[in-house]
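Notes, p. 3: input format for complexes.
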Amino acid sequence: MLRMLIMGPAGSGKGTMSERICADYRIPHISTGDMFREELKLNTELGQQAQSYMSQGLLVPDEVTIAMVKSRISRDDCANGYLLDGFPRSLPQAMAISDLDIDAVINLKIDEQLLVDRIVERRICRNCGAIYNRISLPSKVEGVCDQCGGELYQRSDDSYEKLRVRLDSYHNETQAAVDYFRDRGLVYDIDAGQAKEDVYRDIQAALAEVKGEEK
Ligand code: AMP
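Output follows (215 residues plus adenosine monophosphate):
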């Protein structure tokens, strides 16, 4: 059983690291950003509600987000644990899951200078969700996914201007949620400015400690 959170500003590698953690520990990857984008694609009421906030880089209101997460983690596939990616992002959201017995919080820390290229050059496969970077991790053929041949696109909130708004919201709202878990001794700080393999090695070391404590 592993109930965990992964936190960090936009571009810190939450999505990439989450995929590896979830494959290795066989737990569902629950990304609130992905869930909102999926709702938007399906043009649901929730998707429409979220869109105006997302397109500006602002947080979707707490009550909407909390209800969506609570409903998701009550499903059967979460009975043996899960990884929440991108939630909580505010103190009220953190408090809303105070009853969940979270085992660990992976906190990805990174110099903000490094985030600009990571975000502005990021491209994502519309079909399989694989993440590329036009500078550091380009696809073999521009605009085409190496893994499935799908079309690569840029998220509309991955512009320099929206990144500034997202980073402000990280400092003004999300940092308080990190502190909430830090006060409870659950936070493992990871240097996310390193090469991907090294970031993952440090995450594995932190999680080995968590699993060791469980026994
Ligand atoms: P992400 O894919 O994690 O970068 O999230 C994309 C966008 O979805 C954010 O900029 C917010 O507009 C919205 N979002 C994702 N998670 C949350 C959350 N926990 N609370 C509020 N808004 C969120």
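The chain has eight helices and eight strands.
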